[in-house]
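It is worth pausing here to work through a concrete case rather than discussing structure prediction in the abstract. The textbook approach is simple: state the sequence, then state the predicted structure, then interpret. We follow exactly that order.
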Amino acid sequence: MVRRVAAPPERKPLEGCHSSVVFSDDRQWAEQLGAFVRDGLESGEQVKYLADTTTPERVLRALADAGIDAAGAVARGQLSVSAAAWTHLTDADSRFDPDTMIGSWHDAAEGARASGYRGLRAIGEMSWGARDSVGADRLLEYELRLHHELFPRLPLTVRCFYDRRLLSDAYVSVLASAHLTHLGEPHPAPALRVAPLEDRPGLLLSGSAGYDTRDAVAAAAAVVSGVAAPRVELDLSSLRHLDAASLAVLADAAAVRPGGTPLVVRKAPSPLRRLLQLFPELDSVVEVVDR
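Step two, the predicted structure:
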């Protein structure tokens, strides 16, 4: 799928573009739904709701109960409600592929603007990712990549809905923490939080990186090795522990950065500094800054 950048080259603020919404009852769901959709319709944006366990009829009924002319918005093409599985599991094997999905968001945002709307806003129910879908283990990588590959330039606002009645605390804590903005109920902090940096390409790792957090480390490494920005930063200033296996995964990712550009590591822990002393060849792929 061809990716076409749809907006001017300058970066826009990322805060609020990609938010997690955590709730545990129907009232909270309806309030978050109504406020977000109303704002989008009134501001001239196209709005999409990607449902998983919620029927389209229930979404439209909740909007109507909130005083929103959902039926009229659907009729004129400004509002749509579809199944998240049909959107996220895009290939013949029902596999989740972040590259395909990111390309689809590019096309959808550009399509909204080509249709005369100011942009696109979308709600996605995230409960599908907790099932045994092929590729769902790459969901954290996908959430992190969105910040650097979509929102800086596209007219796009997304809210990811996490229903705590359907999802484990562990799932919510890891995925919701990957967003810059959090709405609704507070959620537990994961053992290792991986989140995008707000003002520059890169990631913040906080907590403890070890065997139990290897999936989160793998997601961070995928972002490090894949983001094609000339300068990507890994902020480790809030990292309490980094085991040898996690360190090796991140070092390998730095070594295959696009174009050979180095990974900037802020507040590198002592194990990483020792690794750089033992392997001077890593100096060309890792730049340590302490400020």
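Step three, interpretation. The longest strand covers residues 232-242. DSSP finds ten helices and eleven strands in the chain.
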